[in-house]
Protein: Cytochrome c-type biogenesis protein CcsB
Organism: Flexivirga oryzae
Amino acid sequence: MIHPALAPYANLAVYTAMGLFTVTLVCFALYLAARTRPLSAAPTAAADTRTPVAAGRHPATDRLAVATGDSPPVTGGDDAPSDSRRARQIAAVALNLTYLGAACLLAAVVLRGITVMRPPNGNMYEFTIAASAAAATVYAALARSRHWEWLGAFVTGLILAALMAAVLLFYTGAAQLLPALQSYWLGIHVTIAICAVGFFTIAFPLSLLQLAQRRRNTRPTMAGHRLLAVVPDAETLERAAYGMNIVGFILWTFTLITGAIWAQEAWGAYWQWDPKEVWTFIVWIVFAAHLHGRATAGWQSKRATYIALAGYVAVVANFTLVNLSSTFAGMHNYSGM
């Protein structure tokens, strides 16, 4: 049974979240701009009211190091950015908007589920909305507990892009699923995949920033030097991305397992070499290689980071190219995912 009267409210929640994340992205960008000013340019009154920071460190790195149990690494220098009162005010506004945006996306998922009276993850539109909600919720929790305001512009940018794709490219009206998809495994298998994508999405900008920080260390005059001075050092970013990828990999492993069990019930075999199955396995292999390389002595963390980035590209390809291209036509085509 479908309740069409609720469908407009689910869509309204998505549009509201898009508006909130647009403003949030601007606020986080303003926060980074406020933080990239030299220490000497910060208001002295605000600086006098804060606890002195040791030379060569900046607050974002110190807070993240405390949260992970590590000694705060030395970053910056005389040009280390200041956490002025204005920057803190902008960050507070951005974080509150992030919480509201995440709440709107969660509300959209719930309302969509009530509208169609099933788990709201049966097509590309619903998957994108739910994955965006997962990424927003994970980031909101981390931003609150670890003060990851410096990551906000990158995460909200990805979420906003995903929501625009969902509305403009993947939108599907509220409808019942085909009989083959009407299984309790839909709620288990796809929901686990959605949570995995949420963690992978947070790890992706962390890995990009890590590579940029390493390049900054070898080229101090490169463009974006002051912007990169705001974020933690490369080693701290690498550990954070590694933690996100570990959680995502564990969830993706359960995605593979539950998918195989559902395939056996639906098609009579655990594995059919369906393009969707193959690409899901490719994603698992790539992230397994990343985690193995990261834990192997003698491996450069830079190589492991490139593998992690390739894994996220494979996740996006698995969701877009495999679903939309006739080249990858297979047994999953009827699902819209």
